């Protein structure tokens, strides 16, 4: 194999499943294994065959189904575990037994209660036994991150002599620091006389948030297999995340000088599949696969992106399976992105003044709402545009009191042709009271033909868009109003309709259901 090629060993189905609450059924494991195969993962650790009959069946099913990735089962350095793993892998195209034993003083003394020499002997025995069952045996020195370097050199040399083809150096408890862990790899590879007979592998945990950094440090110092999981799932704080490892290697090839065989376009779909099966949500700011990983909200960034994408993006969203990057309009956005998005929606401003008015209203809305959607923008612009007619009536203030068991009361202040007028009224509901209060002032002699309201987007901070249809002397107008407060949106729509009537505008009858 090319010496610059890093083997991607996915352990979502084994170490990932060790996340409390992430247990998977056989069918779920198969679905994930198929997605990993499609992504061209080199080795899939399908489970720990000895753990339970269910895990045995899962490893067996994955081994029988997946043909383009090597399938692996974990096993302790015990005959029973190894034989069970071999049995589960019987029909695999490229089977691998991954046997391990702890090598740190603390694990050997307190957990295994074994002398180091006995541990070494058992490791050699386990590798030899596994080699009788499969060609590719991987040996792990559990808790290598806290193990003595001289002892590691001795046990690894012996394991390679016994037939291990991959030597895995796990930082089991996430204790390592990148430069120090890189140095460990360099030392091991330099000092072990038969190191060139095996592939050195790294397996990091994220207890200090350093799993990916430590894995990359190992790669920089000779590791040519990385063990990782989708979404960084795994025991406690998780393992190194596959998507971050793969994309770091791809994006920084100039520094790392290595490559993987992963088809990165399947990363996002696989990440979503694992999240939906395990029920572990993906945090929005998660690198590569988080909803915000390729989203830009700040005006300065959006302006830069629109001028030249690479000003703020080091990877292409499409390369990892997103449809595209996202320009999210929010309170930090600027005119460039605002105008650009509206142009994409087919809205063109006729003047700078029109853009500025719409932009001011957009900022006011963005202060009230977390995210502005396309529908918000369309409502906002149509609201801005209809407000270009001469407004006889303008809403100044509205106060509505609505209590359980009491009749709602609305107090309203309008300007009518610039003159301030106040009124109040009761009503059967807050909207009815508001309309009646407006009529106390307007005495418009209109009839309300239609009142419709819908939330423009989902969520309780959504804008409500209200349409009010008024009729007077055979003339019909539709007034629109949008606001995060539905009663204010209703008042705006009613007043807009009154202004349209005063301005002599007649609206076409909208299609049924299209109001
Ligand atoms: C770092 C890692 O991720 S290691 C993998 C962790 N994953 C798991 O443990 C999940 C699957 N595990 C299981 O289902 C169970 O623990 C089993 C079936 C493997 C074993 O169950 P039990 O026989 O009931 O043993 P139990 O889990 O209580 O204790 C583990 C035993 O294995 C021994 N052991 C631990 N690691 C190894 C090893 N690598 N090689 C040999 N023996 C080991 C322990 O010393 C202990 O032995 P003892 O009972 O003689 O003291
Ligand atoms: C079994 C080994 C590889 C492991 O998961 C660890 O040490 O973290
Ligand atoms: Mg682990």
UniProtKB/TrEMBL annotation:
Listed GO CC annotations: cytosol
EC number: 2.3.3.13
One Pfam family, short name: LeuA_dimer
Tagged with keyword Ribosomal protein: no
Domain Pyruvate carboxyltransferase residue range list: 6-268
Residue segments, region Regulatory domain: 394-515
Reactions mediated catalytically: 3-methyl-2-oxobutanoate + acetyl-CoA + H2O = (2S)-2-isopropylmalate + CoA + H(+)
Listed name of the protein: 2-isopropylmalate synthase
